[in-house]
Design goal:
Shape: globular
Radius of gyration: 24 Å
Number of strands: 5
Strand content: under 5%
Low-confidence stretches: none
Distance between the termini: 67 Å
Structural class: mainly alpha
Number of helices: 22
Largest sheet: 5 strands, mixed
Order of helices and strands: HHHHHHHHHHHHHHHHHHEHEHHHEEE
């Protein structure tokens, strides 16, 4: 059998194992409602979240909405998810081979990158989850782009950068910074074809830039209460944005990864590759430093909105490649010396990062939502019944921390904690939506997600008709779903073992 076919087969198998590891959930709460809106624009007419997303340059998701319908969407998204995961595995292998020029090292690197999900990570950003978003594709194209960049094929790399802009515009910013800093220090590498490709790429992404600027200008971000917005960001996205809120364990493990990386540099003899990787690392470090300064020391709306710690995901994979290369070469010459025991320690630590979730029940035990299976939870059941018992323009108050209501109900949600994460970039909308949560189940003593959830769960149990009438008058809420048991004296439209749907 051809060696390449064997490797490709192993990469495909790794993709399937990674799906078993993360599971698959059709009910992606952020972008799936947008797809449904593009399928039927009479849905979500008054929803601020959909109004926001529909004005952003999310062309890939817009295309999916236009070319699918409600009867085949579940199948389409399932196969798209499988394809995205396979593409990710191949893109990481391509990047690893661009660096190491060794097939086995590249395969080991891919295994580490795919199966070590949370460990050796800061900022709580991970490459893939159990659902599919625009970033699921953008990161794969980004790895191909970086791979070509390391190979000095700048033309293809820049053209792929253009493609990323139409998939997930924020990702192009990180790579744009990396490539710009590299060329600033290596001006002689800007040949005529690279220069004109760069100009063409800028022209091609202009529609994305124009639409993004227009969306931000329409959102009225110039007038807002900065303190209120910052409180919202701390509560909703603090685990991504603010290093002071990260777990000490994450810092320790990530520091170990960095140490392993520097030790492993000795085994990559390709100076040109090392030089390129140095500038990628320098650019990433500068973004991380900027993110820290302008989130913790001098909080700035624009920098916080860029989520700069997300940029680390690219260099994290590169570090895995170097470490894999080190392990491969050091274990090839087994000697009972310090280097051998160091390598053995690294292997055990990485294996622990892969197998730990399986041993402790946090991974390799996730459910996979197959489109041909119709086993639904009580929350999905009440959401589906809401679609049956309410009109399209209904505004439904739901338990704020339940996910994917809009996916199953096709109805407007009063407030959903998951969805408002996108309001990070639109401070006035964030402030307005967060006030809706406060009006429903606040006020809150601390701006901490767990404190808010606990207080909200307690306060919403005590909600009464007068409070609901006030919310109906102020916001137009016409229905409410509550956890059972409760004592509301309202018309019951449907109930199951965990939830009840009331008409206000």
């Amino acid at each position: 059998m051809n060696e390449n076919y064997l490797i490709y087969g192993l990469i495909g198998l790794l993709a399937i194992v990674s799906i078993i590891n993360t599971g698959y959930d059709y009910a992606e709460p952020l972008y799936l409602p947008l797809i449904k809106y593009y399928q039927d624009n009479t849905l979500f007419q008054e929803d601020p979240y959909i109004s926001l997303l529909s004005n952003l340059p999310l062309y890939m998701w817009q295309s999916i909405g236009y070319f699918t319908n409600s009867s085949n969407l579940e199948w389409f998204m399932f196969f798209l998810f499988v394809f995205a995961r396979i593409l990710l595995c191949f893109s990481i292998y391509f990047l690893a081979f661009s660096i190491s020029k060794n097939k086995l090292v590249s395969l080991i690197s891919t295994i580490f990158s795919i199966l070590i999900i949370w460990t050796f990570n800061i900022g709580n950003f991970i490459m893939f989850l159990s659902d599919i978003t625009p970033f699921s594709f953008a990161i794969s194209v980004a790895f191909f782009s970086i791979g070509y960049f390391i190979r000095k094929n700048y033309v293809v790399s820049l053209l792929l950068l253009t493609l990323i802009a139409y998939i997930h515009p924020l990702t192009i910013f990180y790579l744009g910074v990396i490539y710009s800093i590299y060329f600033i220090f290596n001006l002689k590498e800007i040949k005529k074809n690279v220069f004109f490709t760069g100009i063409a790429s800028l022209v091609l992404i202009l529609p994305v830039v124009v639409k993004s600027v227009k969306s931000f200008s329409l959102s009225g971000t110039n007038s807002f209460n900065f303190t209120s917005w910052l409180n919202f960001v701390v509560a909703r996205d603090g685990h991504h944005i603010f290093p002071s809120l990260w777990d000490l364990r994450n810092y320790i493990l990530f520091s170990l990864l960095v140490i392993f990386f520097f030790v492993s540099l000795k085994y990559n003899k390709n100076r040109e590759v090392n030089r390129t990787v140095f500038y990628i690392g320098l650019s990433t470090f500068l973004m991380l430093l900027t993110g820290y300064i302008f989130s913790e020391i001098y909080p700035t709306k624009e920098i916080i909105g860029l989520s700069l710690f997300r940029s680390l995901m690219f260099f994290r994979v590169i570090m895995f490649v170097y470490i894999s290369n080190y392990l491969y070469h050091s274990m090839k010459r087994i000697r009972l010396n310090l280097e051998f025991f160091y390598s053995l320690f690294v292997i055990c630590l990485f294996l622990g990062a892969i197998l730990g979730p399986a041993i402790f029940g946090n991974g390799f035990s996730k459910e996979i939502y197959f489109p041909w299976e119709k086993n639904i939870t009580s929350w999905e059941d009440i959401s589906l019944k809401t679609k049956e018992f309410t009109p399209k323009n209904a505004l439904v108050i739901i338990p704020p921390f339940e996910k994917s209501f809009m996916v199953f109900s096709d109805r407007n949600s009063y407030f959903g904690w998951t969805e408002v994460g996108s309001f990070l970039y639109f401070p006035n909308l964030a402030e307005r939506e967060f006030n809706k949560l406060i009006d429903l189940c606040g006020p809150f003593d601390k701006y901490d997600v767990w404190e808010i959830k606990e207080e909200c769960d307690e306060n919403i149990k005590k909600i009464d008709k007068s409070k609901l009438n006030e919310l109906k008058k102020r916001y137009g809420a016409t229905y409410i779903i509550l956890k059972t048991p409760n004592n509301l004296d309202l018309i019951v439209l449907y109930k199951n073992e965990d939830f009840v749907l009331y008409q206000i």
